[in-house]
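To the team - iron/sulfur cluster complex, inputs and output below.
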Amino acid sequence: MYFTDFLFKEIKDILIGNNLSPNRAYQIFNWIYRKFVFDFSEMSDISKKEREFLNENFNILSLELVESINGDDTIKFLFKTKDENFIETVLIIAPKNEDNERLTLCISSQAGCPLDCEFCATGKIGFKRNLSVSEIISQLLLVEKFILLNLKEFKPLGENLRHIGNIVFMGMGEPLLNTENVLKVINILTFSGGYNIGERHITISTAGIIPEIERFLNSQIRLAISLHTPFQEIREQIMPVAKKYKLPELIDAIKYYQNITERRITFEYILINELNDSEKDVIELKKLLSGLKYNLNLINYNPIPQSNFKPLSEEKIKNFTSLLDKHSIPYVLRKSKGSKLYAGCGQLGLLKLKNS
Ligand code: SF4
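Output:
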């Protein structure tokens, strides 16, 4: 069993069931989720008998860190699962003046992805399997340990000992095809006696798995939608999942979500040359998003060898953003961090391909 598969309450029940003090659960959570100690033998305030029980019954982490590669403002991590699947995680470092919480972790929820978006390297790998709760949490804990040992300039946040300020489920895979595990991960990581990150600091990015959206009506978790075009036909061409979950229904589901939660939605829009960068696109976008509270994030396309799509030139980006200004559509132009490392949006999976 992996300790990181379990909620605090479940661990307490296991301890009680084995005639051990349930209060130990606080201490163990403190060691693992606050001090990033992953060896029960080092947990000095736990009795020898209890440590033996833990060692006999649990492992803590279910991933092995194979490689980390530093870029200017990103570090990419390649992990291996016990059954030899490779997954990638990206640490994004904001400039000093940008944010107090400078570290964001882009985490994977599946090995590969079944959705096969035309612009995405992960989709081209195909689908291997959903990641377990422990495999998702292990990405975060191993990166926290890496920061603790190697990036000493990043002070822990507030009373917490964690370094990472935000978690985004935008790595490999579609999180809403692994919702049960993703929700359990969030439940574990938001526990105040452990990692203690607020739901508002967690974003789930989805290609638009409509029936799963309503599972977030009662939480503070932020939702991001991979939109990329306001036209149903084009969306179907670049995101096959759009054939099943169509744009009008997706927008209706988002409106319902927003009526209940009053939370702003983020739309991701990858800029692809000659595909979604014309005034016609802007006019349709305006119609599609009217009545919604939203952020529109523009990201220039990161080329991958398996696709013929091209990014926009500087001049074309300027032209597109001036069209958005002209039609009063607010946007943020994101610099795609990590594209040289194959750590940019849509590029996860290339590291393994490149190394193999
Ligand atoms: S963009 Fe996201 S949903 Fe689409 S194939 Fe890539 S990982 Fe899957």
